[in-house]
Amino acid sequence: xxxxxxxxxxxxxxxxxxxxxxxxxxxxxxxxxxxxxxxxxxxxxxxxxxxxxxxxxxxxxxxxxxxxxxxxxxxxxxxxxxxxxxxxxxxxxxxxxxxxxxxxxxxxxxxxxxxxxxxxxxxxxxxxxxxxxxxxxxxxxxxxxxxxxxxxxxxxxxxxxxxxxxxxxxxxxxxxxxxxxxxxxxxxxxxxxxxxxxxxxxxxxxxxxxxxxxxxxxxxxxxxxxxxxxxxxxxxxxxxxxxxxxxxxxxxxxxxxxxxxxxxxxxxxxxxxxxxxxxxxxxxxxxxxxxx
Amino acid sequence: xxxxxxxxxxxxxxxxxxxxxxxxxxxxxxxxxxxxxxxxxxxxxxxxxxxxxxxxxxxxxxxxxxxxxxxxxxxxxxxxxxxxxxxxxxxxxxxxxxxxxxxxxxxxxxxxxxxxxxxxxxxxxxxxxxxxxxxxxxxxxxxxxxxxxxxxxxxxxxxxxxxxxxxxxxxxxxxxxxxxxxxxxxxxxxxxxxxxxxxxxxxxxxxxxxxxxxxxxxxxxxxxxxxxxxxxxxxxxxxxxxxxxxxxxxxxxxxxxxxxxxxxxxxxxxxxxxxxxxxxxxxxxxxxxxxxxxxxxxxxxxxxxxxxxxxxxxxxxxxxxxxxxxxxxxxxxxxxxxxxxxx
Lengths: 292, 343
Prior knowledge:
heterodimer; A: mainly alpha; two-stranded antiparallel ribbon; 11 helices; 71% helix; globular; B: mainly alpha
């Protein structure tokens, strides 16, 4: 029983990062695409933070600077690279994000090299014992910070006028435009926010998974699974989905010997395909009815 | 009218000349260069297959590396375990991959656009782990070594030359086959589905059947290409089939020109040759150059090299630039498609 709880808790720790990336993914789907480069965005942000810290900048200052830069760069990329593709077929926009992914990935390798680096954690080492379950303080704090940031984004979406515009632009861009909302910029803001959220999730998971240019491929896949599980049009669902995927991945890896840690991508594949086939809207998404 | 033209003597002569040049190349180039050419041909076959699915019928597959891998492993296992003649493993590789494609095509009917991309992306990412896990069959991480083939019938040519000629032969067969399929009933049905599921169904096309068939044919091509790869390289291992491979297939057909047969050749040339040149600059640069070219093509010339050339050609021929403009950038690929297909 305690072992089970232990697995669930450590699943939640990695799930926090998946939740962050999943939320980021959901924030950009309003432009009608899935940004496969979202993981690489986060990876670059982590490298930027790492460089700042190496230069002697205080951890939290570096964290804040990185988040601000990510927000700006996210907006910039939408305005310059994705904007011309508005209204293009899915294939074009998906492949554009793939191109972006390739550029960012090898750009990072070129700049920072492929050797694995460790990322510092600002939190003390050690563990809290709760019943028979050990809670790593680092994991706990990382989880807490991610959740606080997610709540902030959530509050922004739910309670501010800009957030309302963002959600409205998602639902009906045409009507939104007629109401005087500059939908193009709202989409750009979505990209910026996504980069922001992804960056924070990336920095929080970095001490656990270490740094290298392909560090985010796994988390990206699980985040995709999380967003699918939660529902692509539900930010809250995506967060819960990400957490769930973290737990499922851990439990399946531990308790089903055939799968173990070697088939973790297979788990994501089964999750994605299973959810899409049997509950395409996800757990919390709206079911869309297509009129013929 | 077009039909007669396409079988005109001029074209036949051109085809014969092309064959002669391709065959002569076997003696004009070194073994390594022949290997590069063969690799381009292998990629071209896989891309033609992907183009039949994504370019003609519409469903977006980011997972064709998986079918390619299945083909490669089928060939390698058949040769390694049963000592089956090399050339005979190719149809087997195609059929096994095609069967998988057909199976995956069935659930994919329920997935619209972007969600299919998502599911196939996961497939491409997971295939490497699956191959490693099934080590009793696939040899795990080490993969399978395939012995170099010997030249049959005492032809008096080197193994490199033989492999090259075999690849060229298979490529020509696959391309002629594909070209003919796309000009006929099948290709028209695919095109109709791409333009509109609903309209296609209304005009009596069994959309579900044709879509799964398209998946099957497409995977068949990828499987044959994979089988050829296994024979050419003499070795298969899970790391050869990472998900960037699947991306490069799709990138190739987008750069070459979606929905065009010749586009897959151009795309294949680009995908194989670019890393050679870019690597001279830096070890990690190829992917950046790759991504940059891809983004450039998507944003500036979405109909790819072939589509753009055709448009320029049309414009020069007719001077009807206004009409071309009216069709819009994204529709242009489809419009010119009809020129290619209509008999």
